[in-house]
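Dear Dr. K.,

Following up on our conversation at the group meeting, I've run the structure prediction for VOC family protein from Bradyrhizobium ontarionense. I'm pasting the input sequence below exactly as I used it, so you can double-check it against your construct before we proceed with anything downstream. Let me know if the numbering doesn't match what you have in your notebook.
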Amino acid sequence: MADQVVVPRFTVVTLGVADMRRSIAFYASLGFARKFRATGEAVAFFDTGGTVLALYPWDALAQDAGLPDMPRASDFRGVTLAWNCRSEAEVDAALDWAVGKGAALLKPAQPTDYGGYGGYFADPDGHVWEVVVAPGIDLGDDGRVRLPD
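The predicted structure tokens came back this morning:
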């Protein structure tokens, strides 16, 4: 067999959630478009503009990965999701939007030590999101992040 070329890709973020209906409603309320609805509440997929956000029952995700589902981490897990913005005003609006949809504000937006501006919220299962405008990281007209070489 010939050597196969492997191209690394980041395509899906899957979050383990306690309550599928609640989490589906939360992410839909943020404005993410749910796709592939034929999966019902077994798994939910959302188009995020370049990658996919998947929601899956916490215990089933742990079992699928061969990990115990208990005890569940109740505090920071060392992972954040990011929502890059074009301006400080957009950061403030995005944080207000998320909190208005049921997110918990973890840290109000403020200047960062690297010259940006950002804050944090948590979804209903405690998954942490950073909302930020960062110098050197631009967003294209399509909303996708563009990094310098």
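Two things stood out to me. The chain has two domains: 1-66, 73-149. The two ends are 35 Å apart (CA to CA).

Best regards,
J.T.
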